[in-house]
Amino acid sequence: MLNIKETTAKYSAISAIGEQVRQLEAQSGEKYLYLNQGVNAVVPIDLSKVIPLIDFNAKDIQVYAPMKGRPLLKKAIIKTYFKGSSRAENLLINNGGMSGLDLIFQTLDLKRVILPSFFWGSYANIMKIRNIDYDFYANFDELKAQIGVLEGCAVVICDPNNPLGNKFDDKNLIDLIKFLDEHQVTVLVDSPYRGVFYANDAFYSQIGQLANVIILESFSKSIGLSGQRIGFIHSTNELLLQQLSIRLMYASNGVNSFAQVLVEKLLTTPAGNAAVNEFRKQTTRDILLNINYLKERGFLAEQFYKNSQPKGIFVVVKFSAEELLKHHIAGISLSFFTAHQKEEAAQFSRICVSVPHHELKLFFDKI
Questions:
Q1: pLDDT at 17
Q2: Domains of the chain with bracketed CATH
Protein backbone atom coordinates (compact mmCIF):
# COMPACT_ATOMS: atom_id res chain seq x y z
CA MET A 1 0.00 0.00 0.00
CA LEU A 2 1.28 3.45 -0.90
CA ASN A 3 1.26 6.05 1.86
CA ILE A 4 0.65 9.44 0.28
CA LYS A 5 1.39 12.88 1.67
CA GLU A 6 -1.70 14.78 0.60
CA THR A 7 -1.79 18.55 0.14
CA THR A 8 -4.63 21.03 0.46
CA ALA A 9 -3.44 22.68 -2.77
CA LYS A 10 -5.84 22.29 -5.68
CA TYR A 11 -5.45 21.49 -9.35
CA SER A 12 -5.38 24.68 -11.44
CA ALA A 13 -8.88 25.98 -12.20
CA ILE A 14 -7.46 27.52 -15.38
CA SER A 15 -6.35 24.11 -16.65
CA ALA A 16 -9.58 22.42 -15.53
CA ILE A 17 -11.78 24.96 -17.34
CA GLY A 18 -9.64 24.64 -20.44
CA GLU A 19 -10.21 20.87 -20.43
CA GLN A 20 -13.95 21.39 -19.96
CA VAL A 21 -14.17 23.80 -22.89
CA ARG A 22 -12.19 21.49 -25.16
CA GLN A 23 -14.71 18.77 -24.42
CA LEU A 24 -17.63 21.11 -25.18
CA GLU A 25 -15.94 22.14 -28.42
CA ALA A 26 -15.43 18.51 -29.45
CA GLN A 27 -19.00 17.54 -28.61
CA SER A 28 -20.67 20.51 -30.32
CA GLY A 29 -18.31 21.04 -33.23
CA GLU A 30 -18.54 24.78 -32.51
CA LYS A 31 -15.62 27.13 -31.84
CA TYR A 32 -14.96 28.62 -28.39
CA LEU A 33 -12.77 31.57 -27.48
CA TYR A 34 -10.18 30.57 -24.89
CA LEU A 35 -9.74 33.58 -22.61
CA ASN A 36 -9.06 31.47 -19.53
CA GLN A 37 -5.39 31.08 -20.38
CA GLY A 38 -2.58 33.34 -19.22
CA VAL A 39 -0.32 33.52 -22.24
CA ASN A 40 0.15 36.15 -24.93
CA ALA A 41 -1.73 34.73 -27.90
CA VAL A 42 -2.01 37.69 -30.30
CA VAL A 43 0.98 36.39 -32.27
CA PRO A 44 3.82 33.99 -31.50
CA ILE A 45 7.29 35.48 -31.40
CA ASP A 46 8.94 34.92 -34.79
CA LEU A 47 12.19 33.08 -34.14
CA SER A 48 12.93 32.22 -37.79
CA LYS A 49 15.88 34.65 -38.01
CA VAL A 50 17.15 33.89 -34.51
CA ILE A 51 17.37 30.09 -34.60
CA PRO A 52 20.03 30.10 -37.37
CA LEU A 53 22.27 32.08 -35.01
CA ILE A 54 22.44 29.11 -32.61
CA ASP A 55 24.86 26.22 -33.12
CA PHE A 56 23.02 23.24 -31.67
CA ASN A 57 26.19 21.15 -31.94
CA ALA A 58 28.18 23.52 -29.76
CA LYS A 59 29.68 21.80 -26.75
CA ASP A 60 28.33 24.35 -24.29
CA ILE A 61 24.76 23.64 -25.44
CA GLN A 62 25.03 19.86 -25.28
CA VAL A 63 26.30 19.78 -21.69
CA TYR A 64 24.90 21.00 -18.37
CA ALA A 65 24.73 24.77 -18.19
CA PRO A 66 26.44 26.56 -15.27
CA MET A 67 24.22 26.08 -12.25
CA LYS A 68 23.60 29.79 -11.66
CA GLY A 69 23.16 30.53 -15.35
CA ARG A 70 25.27 31.20 -18.44
CA PRO A 71 27.57 34.24 -17.92
CA LEU A 72 26.72 35.77 -21.32
CA LEU A 73 22.99 35.59 -20.58
CA LYS A 74 23.43 37.13 -17.14
CA LYS A 75 25.53 39.91 -18.66
CA ALA A 76 22.76 40.59 -21.19
CA ILE A 77 20.10 40.69 -18.44
CA ILE A 78 22.09 43.16 -16.36
CA LYS A 79 22.51 45.43 -19.39
CA THR A 80 18.92 45.14 -20.62
CA TYR A 81 16.86 44.96 -17.43
CA PHE A 82 19.09 46.80 -14.94
CA LYS A 83 20.79 49.37 -17.18
CA GLY A 84 24.15 48.05 -15.99
CA SER A 85 23.40 49.04 -12.40
CA SER A 86 23.78 45.54 -10.94
CA ARG A 87 26.17 42.59 -11.17
CA ALA A 88 25.88 39.11 -12.64
CA GLU A 89 26.53 37.74 -9.13
CA ASN A 90 23.11 39.08 -8.10
CA LEU A 91 21.32 36.86 -10.64
CA LEU A 92 20.14 33.26 -10.68
CA ILE A 93 18.69 31.87 -13.91
CA ASN A 94 15.75 29.64 -13.02
CA ASN A 95 12.97 27.58 -14.61
CA GLY A 96 10.33 30.27 -15.05
CA GLY A 97 8.03 32.17 -12.70
CA MET A 98 6.23 29.41 -10.82
CA SER A 99 9.44 27.50 -10.17
CA GLY A 100 11.07 30.71 -8.99
CA LEU A 101 8.23 31.40 -6.57
CA ASP A 102 8.54 27.93 -5.11
CA LEU A 103 12.30 28.29 -4.68
CA ILE A 104 11.91 31.65 -2.94
CA PHE A 105 9.04 30.62 -0.66
CA GLN A 106 10.80 27.46 0.50
CA THR A 107 14.09 29.31 1.11
CA LEU A 108 12.95 32.36 3.07
CA ASP A 109 12.26 31.94 6.79
CA LEU A 110 9.02 33.94 7.04
CA LYS A 111 6.28 34.56 9.55
CA ARG A 112 3.83 34.87 6.67
CA VAL A 113 3.47 36.13 3.11
CA ILE A 114 1.16 39.08 2.41
CA LEU A 115 -0.64 38.86 -0.95
CA PRO A 116 -2.89 41.31 -2.81
CA SER A 117 -6.55 40.72 -1.95
CA PHE A 118 -7.05 39.60 -5.56
CA PHE A 119 -4.20 37.24 -6.29
CA TRP A 120 -2.94 34.56 -8.67
CA GLY A 121 -4.07 31.24 -7.20
CA SER A 122 -0.65 29.63 -7.63
CA TYR A 123 0.75 31.85 -4.87
CA ALA A 124 -1.60 30.30 -2.33
CA ASN A 125 -1.24 26.76 -3.66
CA ILE A 126 2.56 26.84 -3.56
CA MET A 127 2.43 28.10 0.02
CA LYS A 128 -0.04 25.37 0.97
CA ILE A 129 2.38 22.78 -0.37
CA ARG A 130 5.23 24.42 1.56
CA ASN A 131 3.13 24.98 4.73
CA ILE A 132 3.59 28.75 4.76
CA ASP A 133 1.02 31.10 6.31
CA TYR A 134 -0.34 33.93 4.21
CA ASP A 135 -2.62 36.93 4.52
CA PHE A 136 -3.84 39.75 2.29
CA TYR A 137 -3.69 43.51 1.74
CA ALA A 138 -6.33 45.59 -0.03
CA ASN A 139 -4.19 48.56 -1.10
CA PHE A 140 -0.88 50.36 -0.58
CA ASP A 141 -2.21 52.59 2.21
CA GLU A 142 -3.22 49.53 4.20
CA LEU A 143 0.30 48.12 3.95
CA LYS A 144 1.78 51.37 5.23
CA ALA A 145 -0.72 51.56 8.09
CA GLN A 146 0.12 48.01 9.18
CA ILE A 147 3.90 48.36 8.90
CA GLY A 148 4.32 47.68 12.61
CA VAL A 149 3.06 44.10 12.28
CA LEU A 150 4.87 43.23 9.04
CA GLU A 151 8.20 42.39 10.66
CA GLY A 152 9.26 38.91 9.55
CA CYS A 153 6.81 38.94 6.63
CA ALA A 154 7.17 39.19 2.87
CA VAL A 155 4.91 41.36 0.71
CA VAL A 156 4.19 40.30 -2.88
CA ILE A 157 3.92 43.07 -5.47
CA CYS A 158 2.36 42.08 -8.78
CA ASP A 159 1.90 45.08 -11.09
CA PRO A 160 0.11 44.90 -13.50
CA ASN A 161 -1.84 42.55 -11.30
CA ASN A 162 -3.05 39.06 -12.08
CA PRO A 163 -6.08 38.70 -12.10
CA LEU A 164 -7.25 42.33 -12.24
CA GLY A 165 -4.76 43.73 -14.72
CA ASN A 166 -4.63 47.01 -12.81
CA LYS A 167 -1.47 49.10 -13.21
CA PHE A 168 -0.51 51.67 -10.59
CA ASP A 169 1.64 54.76 -11.04
CA ASP A 170 5.32 53.80 -10.95
CA LYS A 171 6.27 56.60 -8.56
CA ASN A 172 3.76 55.39 -5.97
CA LEU A 173 4.89 51.82 -6.54
CA ILE A 174 8.57 52.62 -6.07
CA ASP A 175 7.81 54.77 -3.00
CA LEU A 176 5.96 51.82 -1.43
CA ILE A 177 8.77 49.35 -2.19
CA LYS A 178 11.36 51.70 -0.69
CA PHE A 179 9.15 52.28 2.37
CA LEU A 180 8.81 48.53 2.99
CA ASP A 181 12.53 48.00 2.43
CA GLU A 182 13.43 50.73 4.94
CA HIS A 183 11.27 48.95 7.53
CA GLN A 184 13.07 45.65 6.93
CA VAL A 185 10.10 44.01 5.21
CA THR A 186 10.95 41.55 2.44
CA VAL A 187 9.44 42.62 -0.89
CA LEU A 188 8.93 40.10 -3.68
CA VAL A 189 8.42 41.96 -6.96
CA ASP A 190 6.75 39.47 -9.30
CA SER A 191 5.52 41.49 -12.29
CA PRO A 192 6.01 39.32 -15.40
CA TYR A 193 3.41 41.26 -17.44
CA ARG A 194 5.18 44.58 -17.05
CA GLY A 195 7.83 43.77 -19.65
CA VAL A 196 5.23 43.51 -22.41
CA PHE A 197 4.36 47.20 -22.02
CA TYR A 198 7.47 48.81 -20.50
CA ALA A 199 10.35 47.32 -22.41
CA ASN A 200 13.79 47.93 -20.92
CA ASP A 201 12.79 50.84 -18.68
CA ALA A 202 14.54 51.91 -15.46
CA PHE A 203 12.15 50.25 -12.98
CA TYR A 204 14.41 47.37 -11.94
CA SER A 205 17.47 49.60 -11.75
CA GLN A 206 15.59 51.86 -9.29
CA ILE A 207 14.76 49.02 -6.88
CA GLY A 208 17.35 46.35 -7.64
CA GLN A 209 19.92 47.47 -5.07
CA LEU A 210 17.49 47.55 -2.13
CA ALA A 211 18.63 44.98 0.42
CA ASN A 212 15.20 43.48 1.13
CA VAL A 213 13.90 43.38 -2.44
CA ILE A 214 13.77 40.20 -4.52
CA ILE A 215 12.89 40.51 -8.19
CA LEU A 216 11.38 37.56 -10.01
CA GLU A 217 11.13 37.79 -13.80
CA SER A 218 9.86 35.38 -16.43
CA PHE A 219 10.50 35.45 -20.16
CA SER A 220 7.15 33.75 -20.71
CA LYS A 221 5.10 36.94 -20.84
CA SER A 222 7.56 39.65 -21.87
CA ILE A 223 8.97 37.90 -24.95
CA GLY A 224 6.49 35.08 -25.50
CA LEU A 225 8.60 32.10 -24.44
CA SER A 226 6.21 30.25 -22.11
CA GLY A 227 7.28 26.89 -23.51
CA GLN A 228 10.95 27.44 -22.70
CA ARG A 229 10.36 27.74 -18.92
CA ILE A 230 13.06 30.26 -18.14
CA GLY A 231 13.36 33.38 -16.00
CA PHE A 232 15.61 34.93 -13.40
CA ILE A 233 15.76 35.86 -9.71
CA HIS A 234 17.65 39.00 -8.66
CA SER A 235 18.77 39.83 -5.13
CA THR A 236 21.75 41.53 -3.49
CA ASN A 237 21.67 38.95 -0.68
CA GLU A 238 24.55 36.53 -1.28
CA LEU A 239 23.30 33.90 1.18
CA LEU A 240 19.82 33.85 -0.37
CA LEU A 241 21.23 33.27 -3.87
CA GLN A 242 23.53 30.56 -2.56
CA GLN A 243 20.65 28.70 -0.95
CA LEU A 244 18.41 29.21 -3.99
CA SER A 245 21.07 27.74 -6.27
CA ILE A 246 21.43 24.66 -4.03
CA ARG A 247 17.68 24.05 -4.16
CA LEU A 248 17.65 24.62 -7.91
CA MET A 249 20.45 22.08 -8.35
CA TYR A 250 18.57 19.31 -6.59
CA ALA A 251 15.19 20.20 -8.06
CA SER A 252 16.13 20.37 -11.76
CA ASN A 253 19.93 20.48 -12.09
CA GLY A 254 19.69 23.96 -13.56
CA VAL A 255 18.04 25.40 -16.66
CA ASN A 256 18.44 23.85 -20.10
CA SER A 257 21.20 25.39 -22.19
CA PHE A 258 19.13 25.94 -25.34
CA ALA A 259 16.59 28.16 -23.57
CA GLN A 260 19.42 30.23 -22.10
CA VAL A 261 21.18 30.68 -25.45
CA LEU A 262 17.87 31.54 -27.14
CA VAL A 263 17.10 34.33 -24.65
CA GLU A 264 20.68 35.58 -24.88
CA LYS A 265 20.35 35.89 -28.69
CA LEU A 266 17.00 37.67 -28.34
CA LEU A 267 18.54 40.22 -25.97
CA THR A 268 21.87 40.80 -27.71
CA THR A 269 21.52 40.45 -31.51
CA PRO A 270 19.84 42.71 -34.07
CA ALA A 271 17.69 39.82 -35.29
CA GLY A 272 16.69 38.99 -31.72
CA ASN A 273 15.88 42.60 -30.84
CA ALA A 274 13.77 42.91 -33.99
CA ALA A 275 11.82 39.74 -33.15
CA VAL A 276 11.14 40.90 -29.58
CA ASN A 277 10.13 44.41 -30.65
CA GLU A 278 7.72 43.15 -33.30
CA PHE A 279 6.18 40.65 -30.86
CA ARG A 280 5.61 43.39 -28.28
CA LYS A 281 4.32 45.85 -30.89
CA GLN A 282 1.64 43.50 -32.21
CA THR A 283 0.75 42.16 -28.76
CA THR A 284 0.30 45.54 -27.08
CA ARG A 285 -1.62 46.89 -30.07
CA ASP A 286 -4.32 44.21 -29.89
CA ILE A 287 -4.44 44.29 -26.08
CA LEU A 288 -5.17 48.03 -26.21
CA LEU A 289 -7.80 47.55 -28.92
CA ASN A 290 -9.47 44.82 -26.85
CA ILE A 291 -9.53 46.85 -23.63
CA ASN A 292 -10.92 49.92 -25.40
CA TYR A 293 -13.57 47.79 -27.10
CA LEU A 294 -14.69 46.30 -23.75
CA LYS A 295 -14.83 49.80 -22.25
CA GLU A 296 -16.92 51.12 -25.14
CA ARG A 297 -19.36 48.22 -24.85
CA GLY A 298 -19.68 48.78 -21.11
CA PHE A 299 -18.35 45.29 -20.39
CA LEU A 300 -15.26 46.29 -18.38
CA ALA A 301 -15.74 46.16 -14.59
CA GLU A 302 -14.47 49.71 -14.06
CA GLN A 303 -14.81 49.57 -10.26
CA PHE A 304 -11.64 47.49 -10.08
CA TYR A 305 -9.53 50.25 -11.64
CA LYS A 306 -9.83 53.10 -9.16
CA ASN A 307 -6.53 54.99 -8.95
CA SER A 308 -5.12 52.61 -11.55
CA GLN A 309 -5.55 51.68 -15.19
CA PRO A 310 -6.24 48.36 -16.95
CA LYS A 311 -2.96 47.57 -18.64
CA GLY A 312 -2.05 43.93 -18.08
CA ILE A 313 -2.84 40.94 -20.23
CA PHE A 314 -5.93 40.36 -18.06
CA VAL A 315 -9.01 42.42 -17.26
CA VAL A 316 -12.19 41.84 -15.28
CA VAL A 317 -15.54 41.91 -17.10
CA LYS A 318 -19.13 42.23 -15.85
CA PHE A 319 -20.11 38.65 -16.62
CA SER A 320 -19.98 35.47 -14.60
CA ALA A 321 -17.99 32.61 -16.06
CA GLU A 322 -21.27 30.78 -16.69
CA GLU A 323 -22.67 33.73 -18.66
CA LEU A 324 -19.55 33.89 -20.81
CA LEU A 325 -19.66 30.17 -21.50
CA LYS A 326 -23.19 30.50 -22.90
CA HIS A 327 -21.61 32.74 -25.55
CA HIS A 328 -18.78 30.25 -26.17
CA ILE A 329 -16.23 32.33 -24.26
CA ALA A 330 -14.01 30.63 -21.69
CA GLY A 331 -13.19 32.88 -18.73
CA ILE A 332 -12.37 32.28 -15.07
CA SER A 333 -14.68 33.30 -12.25
CA LEU A 334 -13.09 36.08 -10.24
CA SER A 335 -14.10 34.12 -7.13
CA PHE A 336 -11.11 31.81 -7.76
CA PHE A 337 -8.77 34.76 -7.17
CA THR A 338 -9.87 35.97 -3.74
CA ALA A 339 -10.29 34.47 -0.29
CA HIS A 340 -12.81 36.84 1.31
CA GLN A 341 -15.09 38.28 -1.39
CA LYS A 342 -16.11 35.13 -3.21
CA GLU A 343 -19.87 35.69 -3.49
CA GLU A 344 -19.50 39.19 -4.92
CA ALA A 345 -16.53 38.17 -7.11
CA ALA A 346 -18.55 35.33 -8.69
CA GLN A 347 -20.50 37.96 -10.61
CA PHE A 348 -17.33 38.82 -12.57
CA SER A 349 -14.77 36.99 -14.69
CA ARG A 350 -11.09 37.38 -15.40
CA ILE A 351 -10.33 37.15 -19.10
CA CYS A 352 -7.10 37.28 -21.04
CA VAL A 353 -7.16 40.15 -23.54
CA SER A 354 -3.89 39.17 -25.21
CA VAL A 355 -5.67 37.59 -28.19
CA PRO A 356 -6.25 38.85 -31.75
CA HIS A 357 -8.67 41.79 -31.64
CA HIS A 358 -10.86 40.46 -34.44
CA GLU A 359 -11.39 37.19 -32.54
CA LEU A 360 -12.37 38.85 -29.27
CA LYS A 361 -14.67 41.28 -31.07
CA LEU A 362 -16.32 38.47 -33.05
CA PHE A 363 -17.43 36.68 -29.89
CA PHE A 364 -18.31 39.69 -27.74
CA ASP A 365 -20.28 41.30 -30.57
CA LYS A 366 -22.82 38.51 -30.08
CA ILE A 367 -23.54 39.53 -26.48
A1: 81
A2: 13-45+272-364 (3.90.1150.10), 60-269 (3.40.640.10)
